[in-house]
Design brief:
The complex is a heterodimer.
Chain A (H helix, E strand, L loop, with lengths): L3 H29 L4 H6 L11 H9 L2 H32 L5 H13 L6 H10 L6 H26 L2 H9 L4 H9 L4 H17 L2 H6 L8 H11 L4 H21 L1 H12 L2
Chain B lengths: L5 H5 L4 H36 L2 E4 L2 E5 L3 H8 L1 H37 L5 H13 L2 H11 L6 H8 L11 H16 L1 H12 L3 H9 L4 H12 L1 H16 L3 H7 L12 H10 L9 H32 L1
Antiparallel strand pairs in B: 1-2
Chain lengths: 274, 316
């Protein structure tokens, strides 16, 4: 036991070193966003001479950054809404009503968990092309919805099955319609599971690059990660602006993560356990 | 799987109510099933079919049997890239298992001690996991820049002459693997930590009283008990390594520069299917065959690995 304090000190030191390795690159990214090229090249480790938003305002006025950000917001929000609403509806039917094809429907959704949809990109491309959905936000939204439904049906079915039948039954005796029972009695109880399903899908959709790369070609429809590649090419020699772009692109999800870190970590690591 | 809910069955007394309930269930299921059918089931079935066709643009033109598969595996125009890319994917998997997941295990063990700040540390190591591979890839591409990058500037401070890491054939893949490890290490670390926290306190206390050192604890006591977490980490790393695309695409481009030193199956598939800067040609036939081969390879190896790893879990 005598060695414990020393050993703990050593482990703590290593953890602090690790935290530094994880955070310092992001710190440099943010600091460089305030620097001019000359400053970045001459003194990469120094703090910026001033915290002026020159680079950020150039991004704002000279590039389509805002447009990319809006596209990402629209696509992610619409896909998550569809995943949670349609996923909850299907899960509710599977979990709360005994019908003949219930387990078949459940298996059909679950099979989607095993399929890496990215490898089906060619038939998806042809499918979207035949529906006139190539180079549209709706096409992306529908593909993301299909990608997210299996996990949300899985999580919500599991959760809805655990709810006691008494509540439902007493509402039914009082003559409430099935719709009212679902919306007013059962679903308010399922909110935690809906949050998990939303978070688990929101992060990969927000960050996705592959589907927009293949499906979206108009500049005005590009999402943030995709727009970033356009912009990194254009400002290739202007490192201050590049770092400002990376910082601004990382900012939205970082802020949400800091506010809700516990839910994010739980949502994403639980998703892996399936 | 479906437990009978007697309270519902009671309501099914009359045929018309029964019919209405059936319509209600169908309504609940319809949107989800429709989207899954159109955007998952149908494309997936077609992808197996398309692999046997020659394509003109986006239209399958002629059934050609296994010719696409043969080209991908044996014809020199494709096969050279296929096998080289596969070898690179294998290197990526092995390196990530050792560097990223090994480090993750050590971090999890250190965090298990619940020293001051351990919760904050979890939040910190998970922060990069939140960021898009596009952001992380560009950031480290700038850091690895031979003249102005942070990496070489830091090495110069300690008197080491830096390299053009991403421009040198022998170091480019390693630099991207390093970036991947930085990006993702928090994920396996927190999966391992969750596994370790499920081990009962008594088990660990008992081992300590018997005089087990940290090394023994970590390798003999905890390691077998976190086998389920290890299974998840190995399978996810395997799938991730063989689907690797975004990070090498951002850091090395679609051709896996320099000189194909960082070419992996994901990049080769993308170039084959959708064309690259050098050849703007779409080739959906060969692309589909490659996708089917990758899918089968990943599915079969994961299924086998899962069996072996699950058996190991039960043994211990």
């Amino acid at each position: 036991m005598r060695g414990e304090p020393i050993k703990h000190g050593l482990i703590q030191a290593l953890l602090i070193l690790n935290a530094f390795v994880m955070l310092y690159p992001l710190f440099v990214m943010v600091m460089s966003a305030f620097k001019s090229n000359a400053e970045i090249f001459a003194s990469p480790f120094a703090l910026p001479e001033s915290f002026a938003f020159t680079n950020a305002s150039r991004m704002w006025s000279e590039t389509s950054f805002i447009l990319y950000l809006l596209n990402s917001l629209i696509v992610t929000a619409a896909a998550i809404a569809a995943i949670v609403v349609f996923g909850t509806m299907a899960a509710y039917a599977i979990a709360r009503y005994p019908f003949r094809l219930s387990s078949a429907a459940f298996m059909f959704f679950l099979a989607g968990l095993m399929v890496p949809l990215k490898l089906a990109i060619i038939p998806l491309f042809i499918q979207l092309d035949s529906l006139g959905l190539i180079d549209t936000r709706l096409g992306l939204i529908l593909v993301y919805t299909a990608m997210g439904l299996p996990s949300s049906v899985f999580i919500l079915t599991g959760f809805l099955r655990t709810l006691p039948g008494e509540l439902e039954e007493s509402a039914r005796i009082e003559g409430a319609s099935e719709l009212r029972i679902m919306l007013q009695v059962m679903l308010p109880l399922a909110r935690p599971a809906m949050v998990i399903a939303a978070i688990q899908n929101a992060v990969p959709i927000w960050n996705d690059f592959f589907f927009p790369l293949v499906f979206i070609s108009s500049d005005r429809l590009k999402t943030l990660p995709q727009g970033l590649t356009v912009f990194m090419g254009e400002y290739n020699t202007d490192w201050g602006v590049l770092f400002a772009g990376l910082t601004l692109a990382a900012l939205p999800i970082t802020l949400v993560y800091i506010a809700l870190s516990r839910q994010f970590i739980a949502g994403l690591t639980q998703g892996a356990g399936k | 799987m479906v437990q009978a809910l007697p309270e519902v069955t009671n309501c099914l007394a009359t045929p018309s109510r029964r019919w209405r309930l059936g319509a209600w269930i169908a309504l609940l299921l319809a949107p989800g099933l429709a989207i899954m059918t159109v955007f998952v089931a149908a494309p997936l079935l077609s992808s197996f079919r398309y692999a046997f066709y020659e394509f003109h643009g986006v239209l399958p033109s002629a059934f050609i049997g296994f010719a696409n598969f043969h080209d991908i595996l044996f014809d020199s125009t494709y096969a050279v890239s296929t096998w080289r890319a596969l070898a690179h994917n294998a290197i990526v998997f092995a390196s990530l298992m050792i560097v990223q997941n090994g480090l993750a295990y050590l971090i999890a063990f250190a965090l298990l001690k619940a020293l001051p700040g351990h919760r904050l540390h979890q939040v910190i190591i998970f922060l990069p996991v939140m960021l898009s591979a596009v952001i992380v890839g560009f950031l480290w591409k700038l850091f690895f820049h031979p003249l102005f990058g942070l990496v070489n500037a830091a090495l110069a401070l300690v008197g080491i002459q830096g390299l053009p890491w991403l421009g040198t054939e022998s170091t480019a893949l390693g630099a991207i693997i390093f970036t991947n490890a930085w990006h993702w290490v928090g994920f396996p670390a927190l999966i391992f930590l969750a596994g370790m926290q499920r081990i009962s306190r008594e088990t660990i206390e008992a081992a300590r009283i018997d005089g087990a050192s940290d090394t023994v604890l970590m390798t003999r006591i905890i390691w077998p008990l976190v086998a389920p977490s290890a299974t998840i980490v190995v399978i996810l790393t395997f799938i991730g390594s063989f689907n690797w695309f975004e990070l090498p695409y951002i850091m090395a481009g679609a051709t896996g520069s320099p000189g194909g030193a960082t070419d992996v199956l994901g990049l080769f598939f993308y170039r084959t299917a959708f064309g690259s800067a050098s050849s703007g040609l779409q080739d959906f036939g060969h692309g589909s065959a490659l996708a089917v081969l990758m899918f089968l390879f990943i599915a079969i190896v994961s299924a086998l690995a899962l069996r072996v790893l699950r058996a190991r879990e039960i043994e211990t």
